[in-house]
Design brief:
The chain is of the alpha/beta class. Among the domains are: 260 residues, no CATH class; 109 residues. Helix content is 39%, strand content 8%. The protein is built from 15 helices and seven strands. The protein has a five-stranded mixed β-sheet with strand order 5-4-3-6-7. The protein has a two-stranded antiparallel sheet with strand order 1-2. Strand 3 and strand 4 form a beta hairpin. The longest helix is centred in the C-terminal third of the chain and has 29 residues.
């Protein structure tokens, strides 16, 4: 008995070590490739239950899933291979200013014959200049008032140009440039401070930080308009969260805040709403933060299965009208890890590999529907994906009955079965996707800045981070230059605030997809360029 217990402990230890090594050193891409070609059926295979033999040979697909449908034969319809790109391509400098310089060399033939030039070959050379700051000086007139003011002489002056931050002499271009450096390109404040010092302007990072927080506070109306568009107008969204360290003075260590991202992308089913991403900073990822975000909303929400989203669709809750959709990528990942950590000795690998191959086949069929209408996608999924889903459910139940309850394969199976309704909703609704990859990609800029700055300095800094990142990432999704957009928006808001505009005005006209053409990526007006002395 002791020997069996020791062997079980050794087995568990070896699996744990293999799992830790996989998490540390394995490639991040979850591409599944069976070690020895097609996976052989083990004792838990479909033929052992009699299920596999009930499918006529004529109805079996070439993938062996028994669904009666054959996937697209890519070998019979070969696609023209794409030429490998070197990343260079033709030089296109038309977007830059061109200056013609005078040739200062000899104008006679270099052999000494004295022949004059017949023509000239243009030599183009690209130049750059580090960040360039300049000061605009506008002389605003003052007047001596001619009306009688009880014998007093009074001087009156015209008001200065309105700015987004009253009482400062910082233009919208500087505010936008620093916000773009920080939140679009991931530079920490100390690097921006150093770059400015090299340009001749000494400004402390604390000043930059406070200025960014005040700017974010000034544009909160636009941020709330984006929030209402993403949560109020959307048919479906993707939601996820990621931890961000935050300073907690007096505790001797950093705390943990969370960034929630709500992403909209209707292109896969031909939707007309523009893509957008909304970020919000919260003190934790407790369920009440999720409920506060989605309370009273009616939409489809894709998520990764975290318990904070567990109340979606629950009758009587604040989120009862939110349709909960699971993620097949997270479900597949558990089987991938089990297969990778057990394939060396062959224990249980065949069962996990079979499940992975069926999930991959679902992705293969569903990938053909990108851009189709929701109804067409639904019909395609019912015809091709539903038979695989039905067989997958049978195999999960069969394998679970033959494996011990504490086995990691059983845990992977239970993860899928406990979320089965949310995972299979895509069969009946063509607007639903298979996974949450769309929103996970939107965390890359957040993670890049997190890596560079290490932590947030305060809750106000986290809110500013969320506001700017929401608008900037939405700009990127819509082909809008973040810097040009912020300059345009800051100038427009400054004019409105200077006229005494009220906070109840419609901020939707300032959302990225409503920006003018001059804010588009690559657009350059004829008079745009670096100012030069007269």
């Amino acid at each position: 008995m002791q020997v069996k217990q020791l062997k079980a402990q050794i087995k568990e230890r070896d699996e744990r070590i293999a799992r830790l090594k996989h998490d540390l050193w394995a490639k991040s891409a979850e591409n599944f490739e069976p070690k020895d070609g097609p996976v052989a059926q083990d004792e838990t295979g479909p033929d052992s239950t009699g299920q596999g033999n009930n499918v006529p040979d004529a109805q079996k697909s070439s993938d062996g899933c028994g669904c009666g449908k054959s996937p697209k034969n890519y070998a019979a319809d070969p696609q023209k291979p794409k030429k490998a790109s070197t990343g260079r391509g033709p030089t296109d400098w038309n977007c830059f200013d061109h200056f013609t310089l005078k040739y200062n060399g000899p104008l006679t033939c270099p052999c000494g014959c004295g022949g004059p030039p017949r023509s000239f070959n243009p030599e183009k050379r690209l130049h750059c200049r580090p960040v360039y700051y300049w000061v605009d000086v506008t002389y605003v007139p003052k007047f001596r008032c001619r009306y009688d003011h009880d014998g007093e002489e009074r001087m009156k002056t015209m008001p200065f140009a309105a700015t987004l931050l009253p009482g400062t002499n910082i233009s919208s271009s500087v505010l936008a440039y620093h916000a773009t450096q920080r939140y679009a390109w991931g530079l920490p404040w100390y690097r921006i401070e150093t770059m400015m010092r090299y340009a001749g302007w000494m400004v402390y990072r604390s000043t930059l930080m406070r200025r960014a927080n005040k700017t974010a506070e000034a544009i909160m109306g636009v941020y709330y308009a984006l929030m209402e568009s993403v949560l109020g107008d959307s048919i479906r969204v993707f939601v996820d969260e990621t931890p961000i360290p935050i300073l907690r003075p007096g505790k001797g260590k950093t705390g943990t805040a969370y960034f929630f991202a709500v992403h909209r992308d209707d292109q896969p089913f031909g939707g007309s709403l523009p893509p957008a991403t909304l970020y919000t900073s919260r003190g934790s990822r407790a369920g009440y933060h999720v409920h506060d975000l989605f309370a009273g909303r009616s939409l489809i929400a894709h998520h990764d299965g975290y318990g904070g989203y567990g109340k979606f669709g629950t009758v009587g809750s604040a989120v009862e009208n939110v349709v909960s959709v699971g993620c097949w990528t997270h479900s597949r990942r558990n089987f991938i890890k089990y297969y990778e950590t057990t394939k060396s000795d062959g224990r249980g690998s065949a069962s996990a590999a079979e499940i992975i191959e069926m999930i991959d086949l679902i992705y293969k069929y569903d990938g053909e529907t990108w851009g189709w209408s929701p109804e067409k996608r639904r019909r395609h999924r019912q015809e091709y994906c539903k038979p695989i889903i039905d067989k997958l459910r049978r195999r999960l139940d069969e394998i679970k009955a033959t494996v011990s309850a504490g086995n990691r394969l059983t845990k992977a199976i239970n993860y899928v079965l406990n979320r089965w309704d949310g995972l299979t909703r895509f069969l009946d609704d063509g607007r639903i996707e298979l996974d949450t990859n769309a929103v996970e990609r939107q965390f890359k800029p957040i993670q890049n800045l997190r890596k560079n700055v290490y932590f947030m300095g305060s809750d106000e800094g986290g809110q500013a981070w969320a506001v700017f990142s929401s608008l900037i990432e939405t700009c990127k999704l819509n082909g809008v230059d973040p810097y040009k957009y912020l300059v345009w928006m800051f100038d427009e808001l400054a004019l409105l605030f200077g006229r005494g505009a009220q906070p109840v005005m419609d901020y939707r006209k300032f959302l990225p997809w409503n920006a003018p053409e001059k804010c588009a990526v690559g657009f350059k007006a004829e008079d745009e360029g670096m100012p030069r002395a007269a």
